[in-house]
């Protein structure tokens, strides 16, 4: 169901104090596909650090009460500087990343206020997310306990063998590309992390943790612009998207 901006604002106003929600921004990767010389979160898009774009969006979303950034220890000072420069007053803690995404998320969870009821797990490098999109996913999570930003796949999808020869064309109906934020009730997400540890279940997507627990996640359309900065080629693409958005204001 599509939510227009006016209705979204009304829904946010009604729920802002009822569902206490925090964001854990994961920014601890080694950026190997960017060359590994600098944390990709600190690269610039339109003269602003990637991570700053992300933090500004969560700062401006009225449903997000506090923010925890999980990053490499050597980047702590840079994150503090970004928070100060761009007025990220919701930043409550910075935590050191773990060896895996799950470990980093657990370290972020340990820093949350115990009263937080919902947690938004987000990629620091997904810097084109908007406050409105974050709110949309939050509202679905409040209803279904688990919701994720995503985009319906429109391209033809092929499955191949190990050497790249096509085995089949996959039916693209109801196929989604998962994005972030991925938002869950804290008790559900905590249980999913514990179950994954018990089963030695490793994933690169937090939705998969919930699925492994046997629970369904509600997908929320957030468009194809919500890209993740992964390689150098993504930087000019992100700048083009932001420039296009500025012409629509």
Spell out the CATH superfamily: Spore Coat Polysaccharide Biosynthesis Protein SpsA, Chain A
Domain count = 1
So what's the CATH class?
A: Alpha Beta
What is the correct CATH architecture? Alpha-Beta Complex
Distance between the termini: 24 Å
Report the total helices.
8
Helix/strand structural class? alpha/beta
What spatial form do the alpha-carbon principal axes imply? globular
Order of strands in the sheet with most strands: 5-4-1-6-10-7-11
Profile the largest sheet.
7 strands, mixed
Low-confidence stretches: none
CATH fold-level topology: Spore Coat Polysaccharide Biosynthesis Protein SpsA, Chain A
What's the pLDDT, averaged over the residues? 92
Helix and strand run: HEEEHEHEHEHEEEEHHEH
Task: Calculate Rg over CA atoms.
Answer: 18 Å
């Amino acid at each position: 169901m599509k939510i227009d901006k006016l209705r979204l604002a009304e829904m946010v106003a009604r729920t802002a104090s009822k569902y206490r929600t925090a964001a854990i921004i994961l920014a601890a990767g080694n950026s190997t596909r960017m060359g590994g010389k600098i944390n990709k979160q600190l690269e610039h898009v339109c003269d602003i650090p990637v991570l700053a774009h992300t933090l500004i969006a969560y700062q401006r979303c009225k449903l997000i009460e506090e923010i925890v950034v999980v990053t490499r220890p050597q980047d702590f000072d840079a994150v503090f500087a970004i928070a100060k420069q761009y007025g990220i007053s919701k930043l409550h803690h910075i935590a050191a990343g773990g060896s895996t995404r799950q470990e980093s998320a657990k370290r972020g969870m340990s820093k949350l206020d115990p009263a937080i009821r919902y947690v938004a797990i987000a990629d620091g490098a997904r810097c084109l997310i908007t406050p409105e999109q974050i709110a949309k996913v939050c509202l679905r999570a409040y209803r279904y306990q688990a919701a994720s930003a995503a985009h319906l796949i429109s391209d033809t999808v092929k499955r191949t063998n190990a050497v790249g020869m096509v085995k089949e064309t996959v039916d693209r109906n109801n196929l989604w590309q998962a994005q972030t934020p991925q938002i869950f009730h804290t008790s559900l997400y905590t249980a999913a992390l514990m179950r994954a540890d018990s089963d030695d279940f490793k994933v690169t997507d937090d939705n998969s943790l919930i699925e492994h627990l046997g629970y369904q996640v509600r997908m929320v359309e957030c468009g194809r612009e919500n890209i993740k900065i992964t390689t150098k080629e993504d930087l000019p693409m992100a700048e083009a998207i932001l420039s296009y958005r500025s012409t629509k204001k």
